[in-house]
Each structure stands twice: as structure tokens, then as C-alpha cells.
Specification:
It is a single chain. By secondary structure, the chain is an alpha/beta fold. The protein has 2 domains: 150 residues, Aspartate Aminotransferase, domain 1 (Alpha-Beta Complex), CATH 3.90.1150; 242 residues, Aspartate Aminotransferase, domain 2. It is built from 12 helices and 17 strands. The strands form 4 sheets. It has a 7-stranded mixed β-sheet, sandwiched between helices. Helix 2 packs antiparallel against helix 9 and helix 10 packs parallel to helix 12. The protein starts with 20 loop residues before the first strand and ends with a helix.
Amino acid sequence: MSKENKPSALMATYARFPITVLKGKGTHVWNEKNEMYLDFTSGIATCNLGHVPDQITQKLHQQVDTLWHCSNLYTIPSQTELAKGLVQHSLFDQVFFCNSGAEANEAALKIARKYAKDHGHPERTSVVSFKESFHGRTYATMSVTGQEKVQTGYTPLMPGVRTLAFNELSDLKKIPNGKTAAVLLELVQGEGGVNPAQKEWLHALQDICRTEDILLMVDEVQTGMGRTGTLFAYEQYGIEPDVMTLAKGLGSGFPIGAMLAKTHIAASFTHGTHGTTFGGNPLAATAGIATLQEMVKPGFLREVQQKAAYLQEQLEQVASRSSAIKKVKGLGFLIGIEIDAEAKELVTLLQEQHILTLTAGQGVLRILPPLTVEIEEINEFITKLDHVLQFVEEKKKVSANPS
């Protein structure tokens, strides 16, 4: 085979959009033709402070000139500082750093099993997750993900996983079976359709976990770091999880993940029981510190809440005049628009209007603007969404009445 006919050097694991992103700043990105797009994906809820935020850039430049990497066999001051910051602003006591959301969830799954054994329950080796959830693509996190499309081709999956119905009260009674070590869930299912947990259901779930000494572990990889209007989504539900996982927005686009736990649970991770080469290195930790500092500034999250409420209000108005929209759902700036059409089609049409969005399943358009988005940019998005929906509706009418 000639070099000209060889496939791409990259494995074909992504169905990529026909856009090459070369530059980003704030709420916008630019392609190779220097055409500007309004980015309402935030790198899949990762660039929560926008692209290349000045505050983070300055701190990273300073760190690049000082030290890039240091083994976790030595003390890393920036890692310790970030851990203290996360503990200070949450109800957890200790932190384990890694590189991604999947690794953070792997750590959570491992500590759940270790905790059960340490407390005299070696038979507790199973975990409960929920349908339509997404927890990662490593072998274990794929196994606890409640979407068959993610697991296709990889069976047999990790044993000991039970997947129950999300927001279904009657299913909760199935959790305690003598073998369950933990329950893992997203408070708003992102990839699975932007489905928020119902408060009554979540409190009933917590009560069962407390009664049965089953760990309640929340995956806040997508909902954490201000995405839902509070630093962490659990704050809005009035629950106290035992374990929380973070990634995405924690480093403003720089790869970092974290698993946070209460002291009595964190005690199960002793010397040599878990580890990582790159997790929490000086560059990643510096990005995390700078990101957290911006988000806890007085008024920052209040402004996020106000702008998110404005976007939700505008979307409801669009829905009231568009037959294509079935429902607007979500929390804060994690929004799903359930539509009577293929969500992929809307994503393509919006790209033609120089707006970047995502899907969350076949019939849900997912909206993830940076938390720093301006009202004028929200208005631009609404105007162009209106235009695209009108096109979709007209197309549907023509299809229904071809004559």
C-alpha cells in the first residue's frame, strides 16, 4: 500500500466534526481559515472559565519556567495547596489526584471495595450504577456506565455491577443485597440526556446508603467546578456524599482529575494501595489552584446563576414558539434541549451559523457555554437557534406535504 492510500496515523475512535480548531480565547474559537465560532461546548464542560483565561495562563507560565513534573514520591507544594482548597470549599477531608474523570472514578471504585474489606465486609464487592449514566471508558468505568453503546464489543464486563433505573423510587429497594459496597451516580446525567436527579429520589437513596453503610459516591466530573451554578452540584440537593470525583473544569482544560473522600473512607488508601505517575503534578496542580481561586471569588457563582437563569428563561421562550422543542432541562449551564428531530442535524445547522453545540443522545441538544459567557453572547445563540429551528420546522412541513 502506498503512503498516499494509507489510513490516517490517528486511530478512528472519533467521528470528528469538519472543523479544525487552531485558536481559542474566552467564549470563541477560530479555525484554520481564521473564522470565528461561538463555543457553547466549553471542550465538553472543561473550559469553564473560557479558552486560555488570563489568570490561569499567567500562573502556568510561571510554573513552566520553574518545574513541570515531580514524582509523587516527593512533596509537591502546589498539590497540597490545591487539596486544601478543595477540602475547604467542600464537605470532604482528603483528596487523591489523577489525570482524568475516568481515573477519578476508577479510584472511587477501588476505594469502595477496599473500604468494605477494611471494615469487615469482604463479601461487598459489587457497585450499583444507573441507566443512561456515563462514568468513563476504562474497563471498570465502562462497566458501570449505563449505556450499552459504550460497552459494545467489550464483553464480558467487570462482574458485580448492577444498573438500576434512574429517578425510579421502586428500584431503590434493590440496592441492599448484602454484597453492595457503593452506589455511583451523576447528579445530572450529561452524556445520557441531561437528566437531573430528583431531590426526593436522591434523599431516599441517601437514606438507604446510610442505613446499610453503603458508600454514596457522586460523579461530578461534568457537574463540578461551577457548571451547575454552585461549585459542586451536591450543594443544591442537600445531601452529604461519602466520595466525590472531579475532572474536566478543575484544570480549565489542563488534564487533572481528583477523588475526594471523608476521612474514615480515605483511610483505606494507605501507602502503596493506589498511585499515579502524572496525577497532581506541578503544572496540573497550578492550573487547578488558579481555576479554583477564580471560582470562589465573591460574586462569581452568583453571576453564573443569574446568567444561567437568563439562558434558561430565553430557551423556554424559544420552546413556547417552536414545535420542534419538547422540553428544556438541566441545571445551571448544563442544559439539554429535547427536540422532535435528530440532535445531530441541529448541531450541524448551528455550526453553519458558527455556533458550536453538542448532543446528549439522539434527541437532545446539549448546551455547555463557558461560565464567563456574556449576555450578548447568549442573545446571539438564542437568535441563531431560533433561525435554525424555523428551518427545521419548515423542512418538516415540506416533508409532510410534498405536494
